[in-house]
Design a protein that fits this description.
Blueprint lengths: L3 E7 L6 H14 L4 E4 L2 E2 L3 E3 L2 E3 L1 H9 L6 H4 L2 E2 L6 H7 L6 H12 L5 E9 L12 H6 L2 E7 L4 H14 L4 E7 L9 H11 L4 E5 L7 H5 L5 H4 L7
Parallel strand pairs: 1-7, 1-8, 2-7, 3-6, 8-9, 9-10
Antiparallel strand pairs: 4-5
């Protein structure tokens, strides 16, 4: 069974959740930890000879240590690149928190030191007319890793997201500041200082923008000890 499981959410969509998740997986592997990950629902999938595939899910597969079939990593693949509940409706499918919880619990039974579950968009993204994606980590009772993009408005979005997570009875286990754009935001240092002082959770790292993705380099910028505890000795 996975020793530690976390849900990865963002303050919005397109903030770098998959990149951050992959970097955490890589860092854990560098610490000789066994890892698994999943993206239960993925929209914006591409049709391949082997069915619909999502680039974010494939990125997770590339950097986790355990080998799993694609269907376990991304069990619900949707083609339209729109909000999951709308994409599911267009595909004639119904999303429910109960089903996602069952899928996640199945993967949590795998032997691993660390498991990540990547969400979609932000904390209150709808699954259907009654439920939001936040029901999944709530039902599982797991900690949350937040991804905060360094752009104008991020302080408000980050603090509101953290407040909502805690209001739902969960812990913000850590957060990662990510630079999703080439341009450096104005007053970035002051913004980081404020977030570090007011988030009430450890900053796991500040990731640079890079024109060509280098997960190993990003992983080197992370400190995931708050997530995994003391590192295992390297054999």
């Amino acid at each position: 069974m996975a020793r530690r499981t976390y849900f990865v959410t963002g303050t919005d969509t397109e903030v770098g959740k998959s990149v951050v998740s992959a970097a955490i997986l890589k860092k854990a592997a560098d610490l000789s930890l066994r890892t698994v990950a999943m993206k239960p629902v993925a929209s914006g999938c591409e049709q391949t000879p082997d069915g619909l595939k999502n680039e974010d899910a494939l990125l997770l597969m590339e950097h986790m240590t355990e080998v799993l079939p694609y269907e376990q990593v991304n069990p619900i693949a949707l083609q339209p690149a729109i909000a999951p509940h709308v994409a599911a409706k267009q595909a004639g499918r119904q999303l429910s928190a109960q089903r996602l919880v069952g899928l996640a619990r199945g993967l949590m039974m795998k032997s691993a030191d660390l498991m990540l579950i990547e969400g979609a968009g932000g904390w209150r993204v709808p699954l259907n007319e009654r439920e939001t994606y936040s029901r999944l980590p709530i039902e599982l009772g797991i900690g949350v890793v937040m991804v905060v993009p360094l752009r104008l408005g991020c302080i408000n979005h980050a603090l509101l997201t953290a407040e909502a997570i805690r209001h739902d009875g969960l812990t913000v286990a850590g957060w990662v500041a990510n630079r999703p754009d080439e341009a450096v935001m104005s007053c970035e240092e002051e913004t980081l200082d404020y977030l570090k002082a007011h988030m009430g959770a450890p900053c796991l790292g500040v990731l640079p923008w890079m024109p060509k993705l280098d997960i190993a380099r990003l992983a080197s910028q992370l400190d995931i000890q708050p997530l995994v505890g003391k590192p295992h000795p390297v054999s």
